[in-house]
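Troubleshooting: if your tokenizer reports a length mismatch, compare your output against this known-good record of 146 residues.
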Amino acid sequence: MKKIEMTEEILLAKKQIGSSWEEIAEKVGMSPVFLTSAALGMNSLKKEDSEKLCEILELSGEVASALQEFPNKKWAQTVPTDPLIYRLYEVVGVYGETIKEIVHEKFGDGIMSAIDFSLDIDKEEDPKGDRVVIKMNGKFLPYKSW
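Known-good structure output:
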């Protein structure tokens, strides 16, 4: 089974049971962000987690196996047209150099890991309009000289 077929089955099953990613992730015992990423094919799950997810969604062992396969983390090189995803590109386009400058000032020459990493998405209620709160937490990886 290909990752795209796996994702299609997962999304259909999720819709049929009417649960949110947060509800499903709580039952699996994982972060909703990481579980969703795995379900969309961008990360893999351990055997026990993939089997638990498939049990909750009433999916086959074939889907559980596909969830355990390493992903190919390649995406289109063009800027996406989906408005939410585009806005994230816009944030990096407008603030990317600023983020880089401040990270280098605080940590030195290096990068933030996307492997030793966590991501949380929250909702902050505000009378002027609810706010999206995205928190990225990645280990700093200094460049080395040799």
